[in-house]
């Protein structure tokens, strides 16, 4: 089942919501506006007076009525192994091979034992063999260059990485909210 992209009344992106929670917003008349073509029809019970079955057409993007979020949500997604491995595409950032989630570990580029912190900019996905080989050294000390520089994903990047079943309307909306990166100079 597709998840619904939830927004506040001003159109700020909040999070993914389960379709059941979206139905509750519709039934409580708490939907301010929607975007996209309906992606799912939910059938309810039979009305005792009319004999008709109730239906709710869910849209892929739903803005809820009510007060808008003052500050919005924390723009930094929580650092979890699931989010980290998604950011790195389930690749070991040392050998470049793709692994199942269970075969990956969180490696601290600057080891915690050397003052490194457990933050997005200091962690990468690593297979068990590479993490063990690197040990408590930096990539330079271990002679194991990183294949990519670790970075802190934006909230929108995190939402894209955390949902495998993004509908076209949702992806178009999210892409328009990705952070703009300055163009790289030509060499």
From TrEMBL:
Gene3D superfamilies: 1.10.30.50. Residues 79-132 form the HNH nuclease domain. This is HNH nuclease domain-containing protein. It comes from Arenimonas composti TR7-09 = DSM 18010. Coiled coil: none annotated.
């Amino acid at each position: 089942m597709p998840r619904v992209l939830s927004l506040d009344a001003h159109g700020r992106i909040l999070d993914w919501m389960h379709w059941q929670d979206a139905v509750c917003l519709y039934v409580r008349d708490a939907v301010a506006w929607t975007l996209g073509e309906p992606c799912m029809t939910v059938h309810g019970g039979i009305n005792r007076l009319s004999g008709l079955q109730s239906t709710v057409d869910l849209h892929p993007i739903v803005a809820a009525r009510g007060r808008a979020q003052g500050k919005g949500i924390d723009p930094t997604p929580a650092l979890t192994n699931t989010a980290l491995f998604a950011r790195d595409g389930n690749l070991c950032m040392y050998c470049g091979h793709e692994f199942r989630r269970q075969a990956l570990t969180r490696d601290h580029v600057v080891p915690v034992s050397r003052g490194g912190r457990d933050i997005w900019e200091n962690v990468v996905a690593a297979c068990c063999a590479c993490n063990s080989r690197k040990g408590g050294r930096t990539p330079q000390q271990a002679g194991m260059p990183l294949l990519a520089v670790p970075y802190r994903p934006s909230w929108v990047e995190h939402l894209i990485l955390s949902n495998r079943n993004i509908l076209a309307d949702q992806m178009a909306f999210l892409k328009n909210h990705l952070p703009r990166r300055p163009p790289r100079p030509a060499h």
